[in-house]
Amino acid sequence: MHALRHNSLFATTRSDSLKAVSVTVRIPTTLRPLSGGASSVTVSGATLRDVLKALDAAHPGFAAKLLDQDGNLHKFVNVFVADDDVRYLKGLDTPVLGGQTVSIVPAVAGGQAVSIVPAVAGGQVVSTAVVVDSER
Fold it and tell me: Which CATH number fits domain 6-106: 3.90.550.10, 3.40.50.11310, 3.40.50.2000, 3.10.20.30?
């Protein structure tokens, strides 16, 4: 595990003019040991950065799991504010509204490859088959 520069992780924030509000953070099963087994916790913040800072203060260890050494979200972690992926919003500077839910969703990799194979007769597709490659 890498050493985080904890002082700088949350140093850059644009939330000075925003009001801190209470939000619910949904915790995935793999991170619940950090929250004492809770599937959700309530913290306050004006931006996602503030929310994650409060989450880490209340339940140490979240920053190490969610953020890289530069304080950015790990690429394998998806975070949603009210069902919107923060990567397509303002990232960690995404504002949060009171009562919203922040969801932490670890990316899922691997699985099975699926191919759709057409059956052709006389130059026409007459049927298709789904082929699952479980060796991948």
Answer: 3.10.20.30
